[in-house]
Structures are given as C-alpha cells and as structure tokens.
Specification:
28 strands; globular; alpha/beta; 10-stranded mixed β-sheet; binds beta-D-galactopyranose; about 20% strand
Length: about 675
C-alpha cells in the first residue's frame, strides 16, 4: 500500500520505447491514476550488452522519472531471456526438451536452470540489480525471472540434468537395490544395477501447461521423482537469486507463479523463500463465472497463509487488437475491468499490474492486449482504469483493516496433481479443474474457501475437502485421523489414498489406511464414459424432511462396502442400482464423508451446502444466483460481503435482512439488485 492506495498499474517494457514515448507513457500512467509498474524481466541484453559491461543508466532514468510522478517500480531480474552473447559463449546453457531437441536462441526461457554457468550469470545479474536498486526509494521490491517452468521449460533433459537426476536418486534411495524395491522395477524386467543406468522419462511431445504428462512405458515412481527433481532444481535456481538479492536489499522478493494452471513447480516449496506470493491471473473479461479465478486467488492466499495476501503481477487488460486471442483475452464488457480489480483486491491482492502498458509493435506478442492501444489514444477502457484508480483509494481502508477468515479449505497437493497427470484415470479428468469445481460448488453456497497444502494446516479449518487425493503418505493419514477425531469435518472424494508417496499401490483395502476413518471400503472403481453413466440419488442429510436429490455421475465412480458409515448416496440405475457410493461416518468428535463418484456442479453444490448447514459452517446468509460470488471479509468482528454479479445482465436477489452499503452508508433492502458486472459491499 502506498499513499493510502493499493498498488495499481501495469507491466512496462521501456526497453522497447524511445525516450519521447517513455515520456508520453508516463503521462498516460499518471492520467490513469497508476502508482506501480513491473519492469525488466526480458531486458538483459540492455542491462549487460556485452559480458561484464553493465548499463543500468537508462533504467535508472525510467525508475526516477516514474518515481517523480508517484509511480513505484517492481524491478525484475532479467533471467527469462539470456542474451545471445552468452549463448554464443556457452551453447550448453540452452534448454533440451524431452525429445532431446535443443531449444535454439530466438524465443525466451531458452535456458537450463541446472547449468552451472547460467546459474553463475544469473546470480551476478541479480546481485548487480539489487546492488543498484536495493535501497532505491522508488522501488517496491524485486521480482525473479518470468514464469519459471512455463512454456515447456520446466523439464530440461540435457546431460547436466540427467546426471544430476541420477545423483538426486542416489541421495534419496541410498542403494540401487533399495530403488529397485521401492520402484518395483522387476515389472517389465527393468531392474537396474547402477544409478547411471537410469534415465529421465521421455515423452514424444513435451508436457507443458495444464497438458497431461501421460506416459505409458515409464515407471510411475520414476516419473513422479522426475517431476519432484525438476521442481526442486528450478526452486534451487530461483533461490540462488533470492540469496543474491537479499544480500543487498530488505525489500520484498517475489516471482510470478502461474497459479494452479501449470504443473512444473511445487509452489508451496518454491514460495517458502519468497516474501510475497505473486501470480499471473488472467480473468476472462466476458465470462459469467469467475470462480476459476477465485480458486486461483484462494490458492495464492493459502501459500503464505500467515499473511493471506498476494500480488497479481499480470492480469487481463483487454485492448490491443486481440491478435494473441489464443489466451482467451477478449475486449472487456463495460464494468468488467472494474469488477476483476475489485475481485482481486477483495480476495487478498495488494498489488495489481496489468499485462501490459502499451501494445507491442514487434515480436511474438505483437498487437497483444494492453492498457494503451497502439496509437496511445485513451478510449473507454482508459476511463475505466481511471475510475478504478479513484475507487481503489476508497476500498483501501476497508481492505487494510479487514481480513479473510474462512472456515473451509480445499487441499491442493502436487503429488496428487503429478500422479493423476502421469497416469490419468479418465482422459477428461484434470486435478486442478476438479479442485476449482469444488471451489465453485462452495462459492454457490456463499461459502468462502481457502486452498491449502495437504498437511497440518488443515487444523486451522473446520471443514476440509480432499479432491481425489490419489497419493497420501502415512504422516498425513495420521494428521487427518486426528483432525476428525478432534471434531474436524472432512469430505474426501473418489480414489482416496490408492497410492503411497512413491506413486506405488499398497496391497491394502482402499482407501488405504483410512477404512476405519471413513467407515467404508471401496469394492469396485470404474471410469465413467458416456455409455456407462449412471443415475445417482443422494438422501438429504439433515433437514428433517427427507428428500432425494438426483443427478448423474461423471469421470469416476465407485461402489462402497459399508462398515460403520451411514449411506448417503446410492446408484439409481444400471447394474449397480441400490449400491452405495457416498457415506458419512461419525468418528471421534468429527465426521468423515466419502463420495466415490464424480458429480456435476449442482449435486456438488447441494452436497457441500448440506454439509455446511449440518455442521453450522460459516456461509453467506443469503442465496446467490448463478454467476454471483460473495467474498466475506471480517473487520472488528463484523462481516463485510463483497457481492459480485459477474453476469452481463442485472440480477435481483433476496437478502436475509436489510444491510448497509459499506461505502455510501445507504440502506440496502432485502430485495436487492446488482447491475451487470456490479460489485456491492454490504455489512
Ligand atoms: C504470460 C507471460 C507474459 C506474456 C503473457 C501474454 O504468461 O508471463 O510475458 O507472455 O503471458 O499474455
């Protein structure tokens, strides 16, 4: 926060502009009411045009010109783009993909994060940057690289990486016999006699982004270790820069994660050495449902759960000529920019910078969306940025003095993400999307949710959801059992604990080690395809007026053998008619729910709403229509609901009582209406 206002601005690329254009841009930023920019992540060639010859003078001038106008800079280390002189001298720095193809110079992120020479160069440039700006009053912090592991750069297979991987395995398993035993390499006669015989798994098409890792020939235990090794290597690369920066500055250090939508870095580990978590979150400016974005923010909030704040360092601005439309970035519906900013701030963001300030003329992202159109003429979006800047001043006090206090959490776990990507159980299943679906179901009920790791953090919440936790270690099973014994409520879905931490399957009843907690055993599991879909029936759990909810299963389905649990859902047709798929087990002072079938949005909403009501969990006391979300913040024991209408039309809804508009002080009657894309804050 600065001068009583949240940080609000854009990513700026002055290395591409003339002096004169920089002047024009700064005036426009001032007019827009911006007070923050992020700069430098691709500008190494300008900072160090020849090895050891640094030129920061041009950047000093931009930072101070911005500073004079009250605009603060978030300074990036430029390691996303190693310059051509470096590649000429050390071609081995180049990234090698899973097919053995060396990525040539000519794009970005063309480096191996394990390469010793590159690590040294990166440390040096980070150190130079921090030495120069570590105490600069116009600099608000430092940002490392750009989207580590993004665009298929998180699984380098060069000779250096292969050798390091073998060493990593040796360190982990001690002896090759131990590795053979744990991996079960006797399968297909893959038994090894030395660590140097092991190779990183190969895929003919390299995984990237949310794409599945899916492999067939690889040992799943080896493949999971490869994911962990790559993630650890990238984090080491990042941490060398964290160290270099921190030698010269006390300002916060961060890097831009890509939230839940990529799978190259375990962000719980990666962000542990950073002062603030940052994310690139591109909300759709046309969608009627921003729950995926809400899930992304909840995930960021949960990574540093002691501060529950984060920075959004890239966000949708609209504009440009839409040539980069593959990102799904459309021109904003009027009000959408205001609303997406409010949504970010209400959800815990304390900085928001758009990608990016002025439409690019050149290069791969030519004519990309941006705050200013290519001709620099302020149009309707500009007026909206101005309005947001003005309103942000109004929101700041409330945001600063209130906090998010959710009682419900979804556990998001990297081993589960990787394991389901390595061996998908249904081609249509995507772990992160399923987590987001559960977030949406809870949001429909007005239940605020955090996203947290699968560890003792669960003890801070009353209700915890484990979406298809396919891998679970003994330590967490114990934590979970104690949590429920002490009064916690857990809902775990299909495929719970079918594998151990090695991505191997224990010879045990499933959910392995948890049959007592859930009071059931899974008898049979089955992927759901269009032809095999079954109708399912849920008995309403608590209302006193027994009623049945009906719907269909999807993705995966299980038949349960009931031990101590109560049945709460059964199949209504197919050869499974009458068999249970969902259960509730009272255990100690708490309750463990198990739902063995993938369910559609409305059944998930009914189920989670029901559980919340039964256990008296915090939820907005008014019903939300489709395309709405309520973010609850608490100030001095009072609830403040930021109620969003993401729809492109107005929505009328019923409040449980009269409220007060937190900003105007006016009464808000029970019959409330929100205009298209409107947000109201009520208390
Ligand atoms: C991000 C990336 C930016 C830019 C943007 C395009 O993932 O960090 O540099 O490429 O996508 O919208």
């Amino acid at each position: 926060m600065v001068n009583g206002m949240i940080y609000y601005g854009a990513d700026y690329y002055p290395e591409q502009e003339t002096e004169q254009d920089i002047g024009t841009d700064i005036s426009l930023m001032v007019d827009a009411g911006f007070n923050a920019v992020r700069m430098g992540e691709f500008a190494w060639i300008k900072f160090e045009p020849r090895e050891g010859e640094y030129d920061f003078a041009w950047f000093d001038s931009v930072i101070s010109r911005l500073g004079e106008k009250g605009i603060f800079s978030l300074v990036c280390t430029p390691t996303a783009c190693p310059p051509v002189w470096m590649i000429d001298k050390h071609p081995d720095i180049l990234y090698t993909d899973g097919r053995g193809v060396v990525r040539p110079f000519g794009g970005r992120r063309h480096y191996c994060y394990n390469n010793a020479a590159y690590r040294e160069y990166s440390e040096k440039i980070a150190e130079e940057t921090a030495r120069r700006y570590g105490n600069n009053k116009n600099v608000i912090g430092f940002h490392i690289d750009n989207e580590l592991a993004q665009e298929g750069t998180g699984r380098c297979q060069c000779a250096v990486c292969k050798n390091l991987f073998r060493g990593w395995l040796e360190k982990k398993y001690g002896s090759i016999d131990n590795l053979n035993k744990i991996y079960g390499t006797i399968f297909w006669g893959q038994t090894y006699s030395r660590f140097d015989q092991l190779n990183p798994p190969v895929k003919s098409i390299e995984p990237c982004g949310a794409e599945r890792i899916e492999t067939f020939f690889d040992n799943p235990a080896l493949r999971l270790d490869w994911e962990r090794f790559c993630s650890d290597s990238i984090i080491d690369f990042q941490n060398i820069q964290v160290g270099a920066l921190k030698r010269h500055t006390d300002k916060p250090v961060t890097t831009n994660t890509t939230g839940g939508w990529t799978n190259g870095v375990n962000y719980y580990k990666g962000c542990s050495t950073l002062d603030i978590v940052s994310v690139d979150e591109y909300p759709s400016l046309r969608t009627e449902d921003l729950s995926a974005t809400g899930f992304g923010y909840a995930f960021m909030r949960g990574i540093k759960d002691n501060i529950k704040k984060f920075w959004v360092v890239e966000s949708s601005s609209g504009g440009g000529l839409g040539v980069w439309a593959r990102q799904g970035v459309s021109q904003p519906y009027p009000g959408a920019l205001t609303q997406t900013a409010q949504h970010a701030f209400a959800s815990g963001a304390e900085l928001l910078t758009y990608f990016q300030f002025r439409t690019f003329r050149f290069g791969a992202e030519q004519l990309e969306a941006s705050v200013m159109d290519i001709d620099g003429i302020p149009r309707r979006r500009f007026k909206e940025f101005q309005k947001i800047s003005a309103e942000a001043k109004k929101w700041t006090d409330l945001l600063e003095s209130s906090s998010i206090n959710n009682e419900t959490a979804i556990c998001f776990d990297y081993d589960c993400l990787w394991a389901t990507a390595i061996k998908p159980f249904n081609a249509h299943y995507h772990y992160t999307s399923y987590c987001a679906k559960l977030y949406r179901a809870l949001a429909k009920n007005g239940i605020g949710t955090d996203v947290i790791p699968m560890d003792e953090t669960i003890n801070k919440y009353k209700f915890v959801i484990l979406p298809a936790p396919i891998i679970m270690d003994c330590r967490f099973k114990k934590i979970l059992g104690d949590y429920v014994k002490n009064g916690g409520v857990v809902l775990s879905t299909f495929l719970t604990a079918i594998k151990d931490e090695n991505n191997s399957a224990p010879r045990e009843r499933v959910p392995a080690g948890l049959t007592e907690l859930f009071g059931i055993t899974v008898a049979e599991g089955d992927p759901v395809f269009d032809k095999t879909r079954a109708q399912v029936e849920f008995s309403i759990l608590f209302s006193g007026k027994p009623s049945l909810l009906k719907g269909a299963n999807e993705l995966w389905t299980e038949s349960l053998e009931i031990n101590t649990a109560n049945v709460i859902g059964r199949y209504a047709d197919t050869f499974r008619a009458g068999e249970p798929f969902a259960s509730r087990n009272d255990y100690g002072k708490g309750t463990a729910y198990y739902v063995g079938a993938g369910l559609d949005d409305s059944l998930l909403a009914a189920l989670t709403g029901d559980i919340a009501a039964r256990h008296g969990l915090e939820a907005a006391p008014f019903a939300l229509k489709d395309g709405m979300e309520a973010v609850r913040r608490v100030k001095d024991g009072e609830n403040y609901y930021f109620v969003f209408n993401f729809n492109e039309k107005s929505v009328s809804f019923k409040l449980d009582r009269m409220y007060t508009d937190a900003f105007t002080g006016e009464a808000v009657s029970e019959d409330a209406t929100l205009a298209a894309k409107e947000c109201i804050v009520i208390t």
